[in-house]
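G., the chain you wanted modeled:
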Amino acid sequence: MTGPISHALNEFRATPQAAGWLKLPFFRDGSAEAVAAKADAALASGAQVLPPPEAVFTSISLTPLETVKVVVLGQDPYPTPGDSHGLAFSYRGSRRLPASLRTILREMSEDLDVPMPTSGDLSKWARQGVLLINTALTVEAGQSGAHMKFGWSALADQAIAAISQQQPAVVFLLWGGPARKRAALVDRTKHLVIEAGHPSPLNRLNDFRGTKPFSRANAWLVEKGLEPVDWRLDA
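Predicted structure as tokens:
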């Protein structure tokens, strides 16, 4: 008997956009099933697991491996019901934008001289080849980091390594200590790595604002003959 997240995994496997991702060891050695089973066990025990099962694999569904030209790595989904929909930093809640996302969008606005977005839904980025992946694809309501040890991180690590190996030119936006450690997985002779501090207001170094990652990423993509990302969310 399989639970909702295992079912969502099977549904993802059956989609055309999954083809590139399914070559990762995570999907070939039983890891994906094992991690999904842990999340389903948490659900069965009465925990509220987020995002909804059908949204757990949104990051790799909206951005097939062969389309990736920018990678943004997050930690785990927002632990408030209704906020997360499977994309790192992206927000569909009805309250004020989360602090880190607000910092990201303010930097984008100032960097590109465009209005501050009213929307926090980053699906538009994902559809343009921006992989917005968390190191854990699930969390429990009110318990940030609850599923960080379930084994999801293997997917993020393998995805970064595969993108580095298979794609010709990708910008990796690595924000904060855990993300920056993944820079070792990237071939810098092919790709651009832009590192910065975490956009969280708890970052005392405040070394994210003013780094201009959006204009730098687009300039490099254009230099490589690729379409720049339209980062505007309200356009």
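The chain has one domain: 4-223.

Shout if anything looks off.
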